[in-house]
Model the fold of this input.
Amino acid sequence: MVRHGETDWNIEKRIQGHIDISLNATGLAQADAAARRLAGQAFDAAYSSDLDRAWQTARVIGQRLDLDVRRTPDLRERHYGILQGLTAEEIATKYPEAYRHYLVRNPQCCFETGESLEDFSARIIAAIESLAAKHPGQNLLLIFHGGVLDVCYRRATGRDLASPRDFPIPNAAFNWLEVGPTGWQLVSWADHRHLTQSLEESPE
Done:
């Protein structure tokens, strides 16, 4: 599982959600670095979120690995409703009540027009378990978003949705998980040795 490369909105700490933001120059370089590191790694199939920042990352990796990457809307980032396009500071000013729910990770809050954490988590888990059932015993390459990886980490480690995120999700890092009939297992997390610069976590 690979998070997309950096976007300008990542730098601004602006919530992207379903808004289609493309990679910046650093993000494209990160995608290329990820592709070079994965060269020689055997994958049986590859899937990507259809949002541009993930799809751009997937195309770079797919071309180098000669993989046909399939666009999969079910792997999209969470829809953040009225919070999309805003920074935390802007949310606190414009939607103080929503900001309170955002800070405590209220699992039921959908921010009026978006997805709740519970619904988002259910969508992602169902999508990945469906892919695992479709490819039993195979190695899959999945390219998507920070929020999706947050759900995957919590599923594999038994962490609840409302607890604070205390684990990194760098752009273009590698996260290895095993998903099958016996459940989810975390193998390796946030491997970004292939990237030449230090990466900070930024909003999804």
About this structure: Confidence is low (pLDDT under 50) at residues 197-202. The radius of gyration is 16 Å. The longest strand covers residues 183-191.
